[in-house]
Amino acid sequence: MNKHGFTLLTEQYLHEVDGTARLWRHDATGAQLLSVVNGDENKCFGVSFRTPPADSTGVAHILEHSVLCGSDKYPVKEPFVELLKGSLSTFLNAFTYPDKTCYPIASCNLRDFYNLTDVYIDAVFHPRITEDIFRQEGWHVEAETSDGPWSYKGVVYNEMKGVYSSPDSVLAEQSQQALFPDTLYSLDSGGNPANIPDLTYEAFYDFHSRYYHPSNARFFFWGDDPEDERLRLTAAALEGYTARPVDSAVPLQPRLETPRQIEVPYAASKGEKRALFTVNWLLGERGDVHQALLMEMLEHILEGLPGSPLRKALIASGLGEDTTGCGLETDLRQMYYSTGLKGVAPRDVQQAELLIFDTLAQLAEEGIPRSAVEAAVNSVEFAYRENNSGRFPRGLAAMVQSLTTWLYDGDPLAPLAWEAPLNALKARIEAGEPVFEQAIKDWFLNNEHRATVILMPDAKLGQLRDEAEKARVAAVQAAAGSDQRARMVAETARLMEAQEAPDSPEALATIPALGLEDLPRENAIIPGPWPSCPRHF
To answer: The pTM is what?
Structure first.
């Protein structure tokens, strides 16, 4: 089947999403489009790109900010701020992951949905990523005077300085990097403040040219809007593009045969003597939906409740203040598990690590209580069936799920069709197979691809970083001649002036807004009946 230049690759009714999912490929560019048609009035759209970083300059993160600063069709400084003034959006944001960047929106109003979709598509393919926007969102030297102290500034630069001042954030990043020393996951896609000033505008612009191309794009639609219009709108946006090879594949981390231990300092307050640590294990590929479900249940067994055995053992030991680690991480090509303690004395780290392995060994040998297994199975199954994504629209949760396989050239429907692997797993459990005990042995006790990451307090680190930053920018200032200093001061003044200047009325007029004619004339009726409630005064 072919519609609007798209060829249908696969079609499947999924009762898990109460609708039909169709995967289409754009003939001219090779772009893929996953269309889920169901009765959800909260319509969702997203476009995602594989954006593998080559370093820790934060180029993917800076670009995510920058493409949302106006485009050819909507040339305003903050189109999404202006959109919100006349929109009924239920979601409007963007995300940078270690290997992808996603631009999702959602709205219950059809006209609003089309407006938001058009703005987002134009933003990613035709952004106004000028040098000024790069300086504003990424980094720049702020030089108010020729001789006064200069400094580094930038939205992402300042954001990541805050991230790197948080021990929990540093521990999470270091835990991931320790498990993936040979792949792009060993880099910080958000940006390390020490590396961000190494990023040039040319490299920034090239990153967009290389990866923000339809051949590297994955479009996603969800809800009760007409599918034919989804294809037509996307085809119109891709008109004029042709296919081209994009080297953005995410490689697998080869399995290591020797455990690693890494010690990293963190910026601590004066007198702080407590450490943080995690033990981290590399698991299998996220595309194995059966194993992903099994590990979700095992995570619930180990640490899902205050009385869960691993969590209880760590807290009851008195060795630390609280557990830490992300638990089961499923957003990357290969899953991993991370657990540990915060607020632990450095001398007690080894004892706490041994406690983790002793607890796991005891569970594997003595068995997991049936009540704990039933609770885990029921909790995970209930979460899938309820599909309560909170303030996050269900369609966007489905998009993120599909990307866990789709991004790596797998079947995007597999994570959404979870009922069959769930039933298969339940059948194994009902048959008495010790699936969780065996998983503990295979993926924790006998898995040599693991890393222990210890964050040690360093009361001088924050000051050393500040001094290094000041010395770096001071060297730039010292090396600049009088003419270059004058240009730097003029650039700083011009950037400030551009940031403060209002958008022109002509530019603001390009932003679509809803009118009265776009709003429903009657309120939606929420199904009842509702029980009467007593009034309290």
So the answer is: 0.94
11, 16, 41, 64: the catalytic one is 64
Smallest CA-to-CA distance from 259 within 80, 73, 445 is with 445
CA distance 514 to 109: 9
DSSP, collapsed to helix, strand or coil, labels residue 519 as coil
At residue 240, the 3 state secondary structure works out as coil
What are the Cα distances from residue 144, in Å, to 19, 475, 499? 58, 16, 15
How far from each other are the two terminal CA atoms of the chain, in whole angstroms? 63
Written as one letter, the residue type at 427 is A
Query: How far is C-alpha 98 from the geometric centre of its chain's CA atoms?
Result: 7
Q: What H or E segment, with its residue span, contains residue 84?
A: helix 79-84
Q: What values do phi and psi take at 307, rounded to 5?
A: -95, 5
For the chain, the helix, strand and coil percentages under 3-state DSSP, each to the nearest 5? 45, 20, 35
Q: Per DSSP, what are the bridge partners of residue 437? A: none
Cβ(410)–Cβ(401) below 8 Å: no
Asked if residues 284 and 364 have their Cβ atoms less than 8 Å apart, the reply is no
Query: Can you tell me the distance from the alpha carbon of 333 to that of 284, in angstroms, rounded to the nearest whole number?
Result: 9
DSSP 448-485: --EEEEEEEEETTHHHHHHHHHHHHHHHHHHH--HHHH
Cα gap 274→342, rounded to integer Å: 8
Tokens read off for 354: 């041994």
Instruction: Fill in the DSSP letter of residue 166.
Output: -
Beta bridge partners of 457: 266
**In contact, 26 and 33? CB cutoff 8 Å:** yes
- In a structure prediction context, what are the per-residue pLDDT tens digits for the chain, which is 537 residues long? 899 999 999 999 999 999 999 999 999 999 999 999 999 999 999 999 999 999 999 999 999 999 999 999 999 999 888 988 889 999 999 999 999 999 999 999 999 999 999 999 999 999 999 999 999 999 999 999 999 899 999 999 999 999 999 999 999 999 999 999 999 999 999 999 999 999 999 999 999 999 999 999 999 999 999 999 999 999 999 999 999 999 999 999 999 999 999 999 999 999 899 999 999 999 999 989 999 999 999 999 999 999 999 999 999 999 999 999 999 999 999 999 999 999 999 999 999 999 999 999 999 999 999 999 999 999 999 999 999 888 889 999 999 999 999 999 999 999 999 999 999 999 999 999 999 999 999 999 999 999 999 999 999 999 999 999 999 999 999 999 999 999 999 999 999 999 999 999 999 999 988 888 888 877 777 776 555 554 444
Active site residue 64: yes
Query: Which amino acid is it at 472?
Result: R
Closest among 80, 84, 63 to 128, alpha carbons compared: 63
- Amino acid letter, 450: R
- In one-letter notation, the amino acid at residue 302 is L
The reply to whether 11 belongs to the active site is: no
Query: Among the options 16, 82, 137, 142, which is catalytic?
Result: 137
Distance between CA 71 and CA 8 in Å, rounded? 31
**Separation CA 490–CA 506 (nearest Å):** 28
